[in-house]
């Protein structure tokens, strides 16, 4: 049989038996154009085929475009996955306050298949806030991953354009193949996280017992006692002046903001049996702890008024200044040690342009 063109016209119908079982059959009529020499070909004879067999043929034809085939063409670079794994090992995402927070890998990068593939450079940039300036710094340092404490994507985005700094930053990072991981409150609640550093900053060499201000429900195995904020009860009473000096030394800032029940200079001599700390905006976490001194990044005007009227001495450091020291002093060395063991030539840098938007000036 020699064929120039085969035309197939199909219609669906239910046979009497199939109608009872709702089995759908296809009625197909075949016709030939050009020379038709097959003696056994009858263009008007119905041919029946089940929808299952039709689907099988269609799936074979569409195989190169299936989801599985597409997925095989892209994957997360191995170095990016190593960074994510190390962060999750020490600061599990299960510790985060997911009811309102957004943690984890927020922007991925690709390592596509093929001989043209270049592996992502094993460089990580750590920052408190991911600004456009930090993104440009990451590009200059040839970073392939940014670990940003605060999530750059906090609520849903319906589009990503250059209309504002946040979206422009995401476009810039994506165009350079840089992934972004954010731990945020997983770092806050981990026993070895930001609030442990802030408690050390507030207490200095003074010894005492520690407990979370608000325990995390059902923490993962190995993280018993995790929670938001920390309350330190001193073995021996300290002075408010000792806490102020310790905070200044740990943060590298000569000026602190303080709200005191007594504005006279004698507040420095005030005895302190306990101090509650919570990095960032921590008032809601520590307000009911009953500690003598509160340390956080920022509070509202009315929260500060309540503190002093309740006889509590309150230190604020500015939001990110209460967090950045942990990243520089503890997270960068931790990542460097872990990643060096996993990837030859791995480098971890602390951002040099990241800073709190506020500063105290003398006029």
TrEMBL record:
GO terms for molecular function: metal ion binding. Coiled coil: none annotated. Pfam families: DUF34_NIF3 (PF01784). GO terms for cellular component: mitochondrion. A divalent metal cation binds at residues 150, 188, 319, 323. The keyword Ligase does not apply. InterPro entries: DUF34/NIF3, DUF34/NIF3_sf. It comes from the Eukaryota. Keywords: Metal-binding. The keyword Iron does not apply. Belongs to the GTP cyclohydrolase I type 2/NIF3 family. NCBIfam families: YbgI_SA1388. This is Uncharacterized protein. It comes from Verticillium longisporum.
